[in-house]
Amino acid sequence: MNQTISSKLTFDKKLSMQQIMDLFEISKNYEGSIYFVCKNRVVEPERLSKLVSFMLTLEDCSDLKIMIEGPEVQAIMQKINECCAGSYVSEDKMDFVVHSNHKIKL
Fold it and tell me: Is residue 40 assigned to a domain?
């Protein structure tokens, strides 16, 4: 069953190149979609160059919203949180979870 989940991380320092590479590996091997959003910029990390340039241009203390669509979203969010450990100071726990078989009126 496909789900959508969102979480926001507030960083106090930039991610290391190893952390960015780990994020790329997580997103490349995931069957769903992962999006990183910061200040009206959205990147879907299907290409390493896009992800690296996006992450390196984030300012310190930036809020990064992570959106995941697909199966096993909570497990992928946990992997991303573990990958970024030590670089962020706070996290909003799963802003929303939507199951694809539910209809939502906006």
Answer: yes
